[in-house]
Design a protein that fits this description.
The protein is of the alpha/beta class. It contains nine helices and eight strands. Helix 1 crosses helix 3, helix 5 packs parallel to helix 6 and helix 6 runs parallel beside helix 8.
């Protein structure tokens, strides 16, 4: 019997407690060296098995090899200083010490391609792989090289992401998803250049493309921000019409456990809309305790 609706997770899944510290953002690894690398592979296998047992039809890696959905990718690039950090505003709602862009950003080698190859070997079902989007990347870094131009830095990252995405597709990935929670905040920039840089990151890919836009992790600053959004969260009204006119194939959104009116899923006309759940670290932990693995971190970003 043909299943009428394809199903997929948003991106990340809770990590086993033996791999990373539970209920903590940027959780430190519990292991090191070759033992850590093997543990990441084991955690990916378990994440895939959980999805297959649940009947998920488009399988992801659960982001088991990453500490953070943005910075783990950036760590592998040239031009970014992770030692000398600067304090800056993130998502226009909280301050954090972030790495500095000190030179032209570049990618000398693949970042997640080997992980994608491993994922491809673990299932015959279609697979999805996630990357950070250009706008969300620049909103997680202090720019000391591109003259403070968020747009210029975003275009530089779009080129790098496109290189990585093409190699992911060559490795057998069926859907490359770009995570852009910043699209729910900087509406003027989304309109002026955000969608364009996203399209550049996804240009000429032989696979399907998607963008995930959510309301952020369950950290205190995000929780307070959500509390001030009112009875209905209508931020998608700003971005979905723009995406409907873009070359992005699919939209992954957040509506369960939020105040997003369900009718908004009809705005990206001509695009497949996926409903993504967002959970706090505590909620994800409680859910995982009922399953086979303890939790480390939230379920979506």
């Amino acid at each position: 019997m043909t299943q009428p609706i394809a199903t997929a997770i948003a991106g990340s899944l809770p990590k086993p407690a033996w791999l990373a510290q539970p209920e903590k953002l940027w959780a430190p690894w519990q292991l090191s060296g070759e033992t850590l690398e093997q543990a990441k592979i084991d955690a990916m296998r378990l994440a895939v098995d959980d999805q297959l047992r649940a009947g998920i039809t488009v399988v992801g890696d659960g982001e088991q090899t990453r500490q953070h959905f943005v910075t783990t990718f950036i760590e592998h690039l040239d031009g970014v200083d992770f030692v000398n950090r600067k304090t800056m505003r993130i998502r226009d709602r909280y301050d954090a010490e972030v790495p500095m862009v000190v030179g032209a950003v570049s990618r000398k080698r693949p970042v997640f391609v080997e992980d994608a190859r491993r994922l491809r070997l673990l299932t015959s079902r279609p697979i999805k792989f996630t990357l950070p989007g250009p706008m969300t990347m620049i909103d997680t870094l202090y720019d000391a090289h591109y003259g403070g131009s968020r747009e210029k830095l975003a275009w530089a990252f779009a080129e790098i992401l496109n290189q990585e995405a093409k190699e992911l597709a060559e490795a057998g990935v069926d859907i490359v998803q770009f995570d852009e929670p910043a699209f729910n905040v900087f509406f003027d920039e989304v309109r002026d250049w955000g969608v364009k840089t996203l399209e550049r990151a996804a240009a000429d890919l032989p696979c399907k493309t998607a963008v995930h836009i959510c309301y952020g992790y369950g950290i205190e600053a995000n929780i307070k921000w959500k509390q001030g959004l009112g009875a209905e969260w209508r931020q998608y009204e700003q971005t979905f019409p723009l995406l409907a006119g873009s070359r992005i194939d699919q939209v992954s959104l957040e509506c369960q456990n939020s105040h997003v009116p369900m009718e908004l899923i009809g705005l990206p006309t001509g695009r497949r809309s996926w409903s993504a759940r967002s959970t706090s670290p505590a909620t994800a932990s409680r859910r995982r305790k009922k399953s086979r693995l303890p939790c480390a971190g939230p379920c979506s970003g």
